[in-house]
Amino acid sequence: MKKFAMLAVLVASVAMIAVACGAPAAPAVVQTAAPIIQTVAPVVQTVVVQQTSAPVVQTSAPVVQTVVVQPTAAPVAVNKVLRINLGSYPDIIDPQKSSFVNEIAHLKLMYEGLTKFDTKLATVPGAAESWKYNDAATELTFTLRDGLKYSDGTLLNAKRFQYSLMRNIDPHTAGEYAAITDEIKGAPEWRGADLSAVSDDDLAKLQADVAASVQALDKSGQPCKEGEEGYAQADCNTLKLTFSKPAPYFHTIMGIWVAYPAKEENITEGGDNWWNSSKFQIGNGPYVLKTLEPFVRARFEPNANYWGGAAKVPIEFSYIADSAVSFQAYKNNEFDIIGLAAEDLATVKADPVLSKEANIFPGSCTFAVMFHQLKEPFTDQKVREAFAEALNRDGWVTDVLQGLGASTLTWIPPGYPGYETSTKWGFDPDLAKKTLAESKYGSVDKLPEITATFSDTPRNRTRYDWLIGKWKEVLGVDVKLNPVDPTTFTALTKDINTAPQMFILGWCADYPDPQNWLSVYWRTGGFGERIGYSNPDFDKLVNEADSTVDPAKRADLYAQAQNLLIDGAPVAFMWNNVNTYMIKPWVTGITTTPQDTDFPGSQDVESIDIDVSKLPQ
C-alpha cells in the first residue's frame, strides 16, 4: 500500500484513508458486532449508489490558487456530479513522490500505468496491451496500445514511461516509493547515490547504467529518439526492462503510480509545485483535473481521450478533515460519499434511511503504534514490548472503533497472501509491567518524556485520550499529546528526521503480494526506515524471496521474514480495518474491493454513474 500505501494516520475523516499505499488518514470504522474480515480471497461486492448537487464549502483552510481549465473533457449531463469528501488535503500529488492514500486517490483518476487492477484485484492490461518475461524473469517487455493519447490529445508512447521510471529512480527526485523499482538493474546504486559526495561523472555513469536497463524501443527494436523527437515518435511503442535478479511480479508494480507518465515539460515548467495546478496535471487516465482549490475542492471531468472510453460522471473531491462536519453535510445532501466514523455509527443504525446507505466491507490496511527506534526510550526493545503488551487492542476496536475493525498482532492482514496469526506482544498488563522493569530504565519514573503525535481533530483528541489513558492505567506512564494539522502530520511522518517519537500509522495494500507488505515497507531503505527500522537478517530473507520463482519456497521465505519482524517489536500492531462509507441511493455502478481505501468503487471508477431521477427535488 502504499502504498502507504498505503495509507496512514488517524485523521478525522475516519474511513477516508491517506497509502496505499501509504495508509489511512483515519481509522476505517463501521459495523456493529463482529468485524467483517475476509479470510481467503479478497471479497468483492457490488453496491448501488448516487448523488445531489449542492457544493460543500470547507470551513477552515483557505483557497490559495487560481486554476487553469484543461482543454479536453467529454460532455456530461447537467446536475451529474459525484461529490466525495476525501478528508485531509494531500501533502503532494506527484506520481514519483506520493505515497499516501489521499494523494494516490487523485493520481488514479488522472493517470494510468502500463497495467492496472480489476475489481478482483487481478493485474490486467492498462496502457500496455501485453507484456512478456524472458524464461529467467530477468527481462520484461511491454507493448503499448496503438494510438494512446494524453487528455490534451497529444501522443503518449513508451518514451514517456521511460522518463517516469527514470525519474522515480533519480536520487534528485527522492520519491517516497523510489525503492520499489530497485529490481531494475543499476537502480539501487543510482537511487542511493550520495549527491553531496559523488562526482558528476560518476553520477552520470550510474544514470547511464539504469538507462540501459529501461529502454524505449521502436517497432524495429531500435532505441527511440531522444528529447522532444522521442516524445513525438508514433512507433515508439515498446518498453523493455532489465532486472538485476528475477522479478516475476514486476508487471504488477507497473500498475501503481510510480510509473504514471506525467509530462516532463510540465514538471519542468511548473517547478517544485507543478502538481498543485490543473495546467500541468495532464494525464492519461479516465479523468481530467478541471479545477483545483487546495484545501477546499478539486473537480475532475471524464477524459474524452481515454482509450477505455469516457467515464459517466464528473467527480468532485472536498477536504473536510472533521468527520462530524462531513457527516452533517452528508445528511444535508451536500455529499454523495463520505467515510463513516465510529462516532456516527449508532446514529446511522437507528435511522431507517441512513442505515440503508451504510456500506461496510473488508479492507486492506493494518494500523500500528509506531515507535521511533532512534529516539529514547524506544531504542530499547523491552520498552517497545512493554507498550505493546499494555495495549488493549480489543478495547480499542470495541470502545473507539465501535466494532469497525479487528485487533491484530501481525502485519499482513487476513485475506492477503502471507497472512499468519501471532500471539507475541499481546495485551497482558502484568507482563507489561514486568517487561518494562527489565528494560534499561528499570521503572516508569526513569523514562524520558514520551509524546504521542497525532492529526488534530476533536474526535482524534478523544481517541488519543482513550489510548494514553490505558497506558497510564497499565504502566503508570504519563504520555503527552501533541496534536498537529492533518497535512503537517502526514509530512512529518515521511522523514526519519521529523518522524515523531510515537504515533499511529497504517499501511494499505498496493497490490496483493507479500512483497508489497514486507520488502516494500520494512526492507532497509523502505518506509520502515523512517522510524529507524533496519535489520540485515530481514533484508536477506526478503531479498531471496523477491527473486524466488518457486511459489512455495517464496511463501516460506516471506513467512520467516514476517516472524523476524514481529520478534523485534518495532511497532505495536494494532488493528485491521474495514472499509466504511455512506453512499447516497442515487449513486449507481459501484463495485467495491478491499483496496477501496480512498472511496468505494475506485478500482472501476468509469462504471460509476448517477441516477438523476432519484435526486432530491
What does this molecule look like?
The protein is an alpha+beta fold and 617 residues long. Among the domains are: 45-96 and 280-360 and 581-614, Periplasmic binding protein-like II (D-Maltodextrin-Binding Protein, domain 2, 3-Layer(aba) Sandwich); 115-261, Dipeptide-binding Protein, domain 1. It is 26% helix and 18% strand. Strands 12, 13, 14, 17 and 18 form a five-stranded antiparallel beta sheet that branches. It has a four-stranded mixed beta sheet with strand order 2-11-10-9, with no helix packed on it.
Q: Secondary-structure blueprint of this entry?
A:
Blueprint lengths: L44 E3 L34 E4 L15 H10 L4 E3 L5 E3 L2 E6 L5 E6 L13 H12 L17 H5 L8 H12 L2 E4 L9 H5 L6 E5 L7 H4 L10 H7 L16 E7 L3 E6 L12 E4 L4 H9 L5 E3 L5 H6 L3 H4 E14 L9 H9 L3 H8 L4 E3 L21 H9 L12 E6 L2 H18 L3 E6 L1 H7 L9 E7 L5 H4 L1 H4 L13 H11 L4 H17 L3 E13 L3 E2 L1 E3 L16 E2 L7
Parallel strand pairs: 2-11, 15-16
Antiparallel strand pairs: 1-20, 3-4, 5-6, 6-8, 7-8, 9-10, 10-11, 12-18, 13-17, 13-18, 14-18, 19-21
